[in-house]
Structure formats: structure tokens, C-alpha cells
Amino acid sequence: MNNDHQAEININDEYQQRLLKLARLRENKLNPYPSQSSKKAQISDFLTDFESLAENKKKVVLAGRIRSLRLQGGSAFLHFEDESGKVQAFVRKDNLGDENYQEFKDNYDLGDFVEITGTAFETKTKEPTVLAESVKILSKTLLPLPDKHAGLKDPDLRFRKRYLDLLANSEVKDVFKLRTAIIKNIREYFDQVGFVEVDTPILQTVAGGATAAPFITHHKALDIDLYLRVAPELYLKRLIIGGYEQVYEIARCFRNEGIDHQHNPEFTQIEFYWAYKDYLFLMDFIEKFFEQLVKKVNGGSLKVKNGDDVIDFTTPYPRVDFKEALDKALKIDIDQTSDQELGKIAKDAKLPVDKSWGRGKLLDELYKKFVRAKMIQPHFIINHPLELSPLAKKIVDRPNYVERFQLVVKTAEVCNAFSELNDPIDQEERFKEQQRLKDGGDDEAQGADADFVEALKHGMPPTAGLGMGIDRLVMLLGNVENIKEVIFFPTMRPKEK
Questions:
Q1: Start-end ranges of CATH 3.30.930.10 in the chain?
Q2: What is the pTM of this model?
Q3: Which residues in the chain land under pLDDT 70?
């Protein structure tokens, strides 16, 4: 018999035993799933006020999940925990009475949620403890929890059953506490400098605002196909057209692309737009933002440990021209190099060149392999090719390039920003080029949004906009290599039954 089958039998045996205990509780007129609890305080409050509680013999009502249980004849020691902490309880037959103690002994298991009423006392080993006067079941668990000492190590199981991961590996919560702190800081910072937080549609009739393959769904009542948004950009810029000058959205976005250590099909980003500003202003602004953020979540230091590297967020960050960097890496002048020659260079570099790749895609993939992949410390890559940036304003004296930057840290794009294109005629032409690429088989080409062009024709002031991936930001500042570690429930292929 293999180990997997043996484990399955053991789990099923445990399940049957717990079902019997559940039935006994009900037979004895005890509700194993009551809707109310008399819990009055957190375990952390009990521990903080322990000396006073013990001195005054004040009764407390605590609740939580049983994490250890040791039966010793007419008494038992158990540890139970809530979100704030863990504490020991001492349960005695003399305190509970014979019938109640027997009920507890026969029917309570590791993992059960309990409410314990009692007083504070200190054991011979000086451990703060609750001397139980009563124990009430709040939720009977039917399946065992992972062994807390052995932990839950299988990454696939951890990501599929995050609730077990959180119970078995307490350090996992630290990453999500960091995520919460980062999002809170983003909101506070942007609110303080005058931004308004807004919501824009997730279901959109055109998949625009980013170069990415969309997810498609169908709305029955309207009988139309809709796309899950790849970015909130075009709606946020509509708000700038409508009179707002500083807007941001913390947006869940969806891109129908591959899954790897840096990509999940649904992810969270902040996008913001600031009227009467340009990309040069935003570079200075985002440097200040990062300095305060990193200090806030990193104990005051601008140096962050990430793998074998120490990332120094001290400003200013170097600004590297896209063309100059790629020219140097490839030892060519990309402006004098044809699409066919770029394709050959990409194939020689073992890149998966497809016939649908246009010039922009070729340049982007070559840049990622030969430039971005070598950048560890924070760098701004600036002035991207026009073909890569259908929503960015052209550089006046370099019309084949645009006013754009990306902040690259530890080989990954953290921010992407433009001086936003507000010339409706130019925008219309660029959408036509995107449509041509889409018709040629490029499923990542942006959709042509005629309604947005019409909105632009009503006038949009000079505007700068930026998108920043929050998941990657948490990875970077939390010393995490896999995006699945910073998303509670990452997308996974279902297991066959």
C-alpha cells in the first residue's frame, strides 16, 4: 500500500471519528455550531493584563481554536489561539463537574473552536493560564489540521489550501501584513497630496489601456461580449477629461497570459493620473514616494534584503535611455536596423519569435533579455520606442520615441508611466495601428476604443499617468521570489478528482 493511500485512509478514519463526536454532541442537546459567543476580549488583552486579572480573580471569557490538547485523567491542559495570540487553559473535572468534563474529554479535538470562561492563574512553570470554569463548543471541526510543528511544506498544497498554510506556517501572515501596510501607505500618501480615489468598470466593451491578451465573457441580458479589464487607464483619463485633476484607483486587473513567478492572471495595481504634469515630474514624485514607503515598512532603512542582493532605494535613481541601453547591449543602432534584422537577432538569442511580432514587440523582448535582466538596483528606463507605447506622447525632437519611463528593480518592472497622449487625431491613428497588429494575430495588441477618442476630442489637459503593480511591490519589499506567496488565492489549475 502506498503512503498516499494510507494517508487517505487515516484521514477518512479521523473524519468518521469526528462525525461520531458531532453526533454525540447533538444527541446531548449541545449545538456544535452556535451563532453567538460571549467572548469579551482578545487573548492578547488577557496576556497584557494578566497580573491584574490574576490578582483580582476577575472572570474572563476568551475564545479561539484548540492547537494542543493533553488529557491527564481528571484534568487537561490545552492551548487555544485567536488572531491576537495563544494562551494555555487548565480544565479540571472538579471545576467543570463530572458530566461536563466527560463531555469535553470525549468530544473535543484539536482544531475545535471553543469558548472558555475562567480566571487567570500562573502554573509552576510561570506560564500564564486560564483556569477554566466552563468550556463551550463554538465550532466542531471534522478534518484534522496540519501538524503545526512539522508545518505545511508542499508549495502546491499551500497555495491551493491557503487556510491550512496560514494555520501551519505563521510566518506566511507576515507577508500579508506587509501587503496591508503597503496598500494603507499608498492610500494615505496619495490622499495627502490631493488625489481622489475612484472606481472604474471591470467589465469593459473594449480591452484597452495596456498591451495584453484579455479574458472574454458574455453578458446574457445585453447579448454582448465583454472583457475583464487589462487596465483602468482609459476610464481614469475620461475622468481627467471630465474635470478631475488627480485621480487614482487600486484596481484588480486581468490578463490572459502565462503564469510564472512574476505573473498571475489576476493582479492588483494602482494607477493614477495627474493633470498639468509630465513624465519628468512623475519620476521625481515616485522617487519621493518610494523613499517614504520603504522607510515606513522597512524599519526606517532604505536598504532592503532581497535574495542574495541588498536593494538600496536611496534617491536619485539613474535614468537610462531605452535606445542608448539597447544599442550598447546589442552593439547596433536600433534606428538603423530593420525589422528582419531585429527578428534574426531575437532568434539567435533563443527568443520565441512569432510571425505576429511587430517591431515594438521585438524591441521590447530584446530589451527585457539584454537590458532589464541585468538591472538589480532601482533604475528608470526612459524614452521608449513609439511602437511600444500607443498611449504616450511623442518626444518633440525624437518623434519615433515617447515620453515614458519604467522603474526597474531586481530585473522586474515595478512602475510604468507616460506623459499621456492627448492629441485625439494621433491617438486615433495609433489605435488603427494596434488594430492592424491585432488583425495580424497579435492577441496582446490594444483594442481601438472609439468612444475614448471621442472623449479626447472634447479636450484633455497635459496629463501624466503611472501604473504600479502592488503584488510585485510586496515581493520586492518582502524578500519573496514567487508572486503566489503574496496573493492569498493565486490562480491554479484544478486537480482532477
A1: 168-318+377-485
A2: 0.90
A3: 1-12, 148-149, 497
